Amino acid sequence: MRRLIINADDLGVNAPRSHGIFQCFEFGVVTSATLICNGSDADRAAKHAREKKLPTGLHLNLTDGTPISKPKDVASLLQSTAGEFRRRELQKRSLGLGEIDPLHIEREIRAQIEWFLDHHGQPTHVDGHHKIHIHPAITPLLIPILDRYGIGMVRIPAEDPLPPFGYVISDEQLAAAKASAVEAREAQTLFAAHGIRSTNHFRGQTLVGNASQKNLRHILTRLPEGTTELMVHPGSMTPIGSPFDLDPQRQTELQMLTNPEVPGLLKERKIELISFADM
User: Fold this and answer.
1) Cα(23)–Cα(178) distance, integer angstroms
2) In this structure, which of 32, 39, 209, 233 has its CB flanked by the most CB atoms within 10 Å?
3) For the whole model, what pTM was predicted?
4) Of 77, 129, 82, 130, which is closest to residue 104 (Cα–Cα)?
5) Average pLDDT for residues 94-100, to the nearest whole number?
């Protein structure tokens, strides 16, 4: 049996990205999303997801924008003057060097879960913006918090096999995917020891920047038995946002996921679409 969760990241980051995700959900291909609580569209997206019954998890964010907590309560997570999280690589470096107070990490994780509970309800699962949830300094702090809030599912972004096997990615992207897989497997061991589960397989990291109908077809035709999560990042066209939001790949992913050929291919390959709520 092949079961597939197509999870759209960054719900709530801004209105055009949210709009693209809801389009894909209403089309029937995206089955899950993860909500970023400090996004400019987070309040509306949380309400809309609840009304539309879109299965939604928490996209834990410690690397972009402002915290949910009061800045003074999580100061070691923030840039000294801007009141915003350090960007991805700087934050991960600070984590690796032990420069961030674990109490500040725990406080912000709890604040984001509490915000989610207040605005949407129980999250189906947790994943991390920039995969922050599998960082060696984060995972041991995250586990007891997940247990406390009854959250039993996480993403394990370990993509295997890796290209080239039908589509080619850059050496830099390949190296990053390999490094993520190693970190993810180490985190998975810790999560599993505490009864926190994940899907059998993961796809999508190598699709970032390489989205196309051909490459999606390649992933689906090679989908292994068991349950796979496919991470996607669709979005509507927007004149505002980060470079990632402005990248035409967001619309390419939207078109890729709403292509009328996709449901037929899923049926042909006997792939059952499910959500994290079904696990």
Assistant:
1) 32
2) 32
3) 0.96
4) 77
5) 97
